[in-house]
Amino acid sequence: MHLLVIRHGIAQDQQEFAKTGRVDALRPLTRSGKKKMRGAARGLKKIAPNVSILATSPLTRAVQTAKIVGAKYDLKPLTIASLSPRKPFSQLLEWLQKNAESTSTIAIVGHEPHLSTFVGWMLTGLKETFITLKKGGAILLEIEGEIKAGRAKLIWSHQPCLLRRIAKGK
Predict the structure, then answer these.
(1) Tens-place pLDDT, residues 24-34
(2) Cα separation, 6 vs 158, whole angstroms
(3) Average pLDDT value for residue range 126-151
(4) What are the φ/ψ torsions at residue 28 (nearest 5 degrees)?
(5) In DSSP terms, which residues pair with 78 in a beta bridge?
(6) How far is Cα 10 from Cα 127, in angstroms, rounded to an integer?
(7) Dihedral angle sign, alpha carbons of residues 147, 149, 155, 156
(8) What is the mean pLDDT of the chain?
């Protein structure tokens, strides 16, 4: 199984959005963030062409990102609570175990530092962050056999600017 880990695109400034009185979970992508994410999604489709399941955090910026990515893959994103920030990794791992097939690629969209720490845990078994995942960036992991912490292999990690260059064929 392959796991495509995607951080949400560029969202409105957290402090400016807080002045609206709305909860941070509703903070959306910026216009520029949407445009850049569409380019990154085109690049993702070129280097990870076969995604069978796309899941997202329920927070607005992740849902918007997942819809952009889903449009490239002709997939409707599933919203799962285990991708919310600060949820235990064990919940996300259980969801992956239930939904994985040996030949499938599952894409997940979420937040930092939750995602990079989850990736570190899947690679090493330790809940430590050592990978930088920029907004709109992505990581591809391969997991052979049993899906559990410490069993993944890093295939690639790309910043969003590289994904956009790949989309343009550069």
Answers:
(1) 999 999 999 99
(2) 10
(3) 95
(4) -95, 175
(5) 55
(6) 25
(7) positive
(8) 96
Would you state the structure tokens that stand for residue 122, as one six-digit string? Answer: 């899947």
Per-residue pLDDT, 76 = 97
pLDDT greater than 80 at residue 103? no
Cα torsion for 46, 50, 53, 58, to the nearest 10°? 0
Write the secondary structure of 51-68 as one string of H (helix), E (strand) and C (coil). Answer: CCEEEECCCHHHHHHHHH
Beta partners for 142? 2, 153
Peptide bond before 160: cis, by omega within 30 degrees of 0?
Answer: no
Q: Is the full-model pTM beyond 0.90?
A: yes
